[in-house]
Amino acid sequence: MPEGLLYSACDLDIEMPQRNPSLMHRPTMTRPLLLGLAFVLVVACGTKDDKKADAPASASAQAAPPPVPANVDVKLLETLKEVAKSCEESASHGRIDCNSAAKNALVSSFNRGQRSRVKALPTFTHVLASSDKKLQGLGAAVLYAAFRVTLGPEAKPGSVSPEDARALLGAVSALPETTSMSAMPALTHAMMLSGQGPLLFKGLTADKPLQVRTMAYRFVMVYGRMTMFDQIKELAKD
């Protein structure tokens, strides 16, 4: 019996013929034939139900990734993802090499004022928190090359929100040592602008690599100036 016909019967909820004494005497509708027909319909209907049940599971398995945060510059993010494809991972040195013309052009876009450094910080936080090692390496490299000296003319006390600074701190703290060092100058400046210097010091615990802590303290003295003098003085006693 054609499969489409069986499905139509299931969809219309057609009931099986009831036993009728008169039918038992018809040569074309014997008891074995009725039982066989019932078996075929049950199997066909069950198969269709199984297919319907499997559909939601397949859809959930292909669920879309979580949405990008609203404060992320989607255009900049897509550019970073594209440039990161040319990065190379060095297994021997444990770092990501992202030296390319595309990366240099990205750095120049910040140095020439075509992009705002302060406004781009949430995008770099999103990049550094990703699971893509090449994207992380590129993000840290651009931060070091374009954000190390300054965060631009808009960099004033309060220009970086505490929430954005803390998010960047969390992302940088979870990075491998070499990648974290590259991002540390920009992080330090962001923490100072948001008035959270003490929180940065609290995160620079003894379990952090010495080179990472040294990099942070160096830029604390640059961006924190006298506001962090007492903390630096205490470190000098150790």
Question: What does this molecule look like?
Answer:
- The structure is a single chain.
- The chain is mainly α and 238 residues long.
- The chain has two domains: 3-61; 74-237, no CATH class.
- Helices cover 62% and strands 3% of the residues.
- The chain is built from eleven helices and two strands.
- It has a two-stranded antiparallel ribbon with strand order 1-2.
- Strand 1 and strand 2 (95-97) form a beta hairpin.
- Helix 4 (101-111) crosses helix 6 (133-147).
- Rounded to the nearest angstrom, the radius of gyration is 32 Å
The main β sheet shows up as: 2 strands, antiparallel
Helix count from the secondary structure assignment: 11
**What are the low-pLDDT stretches, counting only 5+ consecutive residues below 50?**
1-10, 12-17, 21-27, 57-62
- Share of helix, binned: 55-70%
| Mean pLDDT over the full residue set | 77
Overall body shape: globular
What structural category characterises the helix and strand content?
mainly alpha
How many separate domains make up the residues? 2
